[in-house]
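Researcher: Structure prediction, please.
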Amino acid sequence: MLGGLLPDSSALVLFLVATVTLNLTPGPDMLYVVANSVGGGRKAGVISALGIGAGTVVHTFAAALGLSALLMSSAVLYDVFRYVGAAYLIYMGVRFLGSKSAFARSVQQSQVPLFSTFRRGVATNVLNPKVAIFFLAFLPQFVDPARGSAIWQFILLGTIFNTSGTMVNTIVALVSGRLGNWIGSRPALSRAQQWFTGSVFMALGARIALAGRA
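Model: Predicted structure follows.
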């Protein structure tokens, strides 16, 4: 049944190639995962990747139900999402810059509240209006009304895209986490790592705040 909702073979191949290419291209989500992995280790990075994946599920259903179109058509609503998301990222960046030694984090890593890490990943993704607009622009190109429910096609294609992205971000988290563990065991580098993590969050926040709608 679900197979009948997929595009024809040529369009499906194009979709899969575009999906993998887009998910391998470094962007805000990948940088967010790297920052969490370097700052909190592999476990925190993987949880961040899963949080971003959960946020993408929200965007998938929003696009399927037409909420993304509403966001794109309302300048006020778009700006609200943009500034709230930017403020959230900058706030996290400031917290990293002002927190205690990252070397202490490596000793207390098992006590990191992983649900909070997951929740931040969801919020970071959901509050980025660019993701919503991207889904609204990308997925409809592969939806064919002749093949059945457009809503279910949106959901199926979004799930494929999200699965690929989560796999890529998880691999990035594992690789970056090894670097974070190595830095965390060297007090001389831990403060630089802390500034790197905080700066990435603040840069992502500034990027969302200053970005236009196009």
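Model: Residues 150-184 form the longest helix (35 residues).
Researcher: Thanks, that helps.
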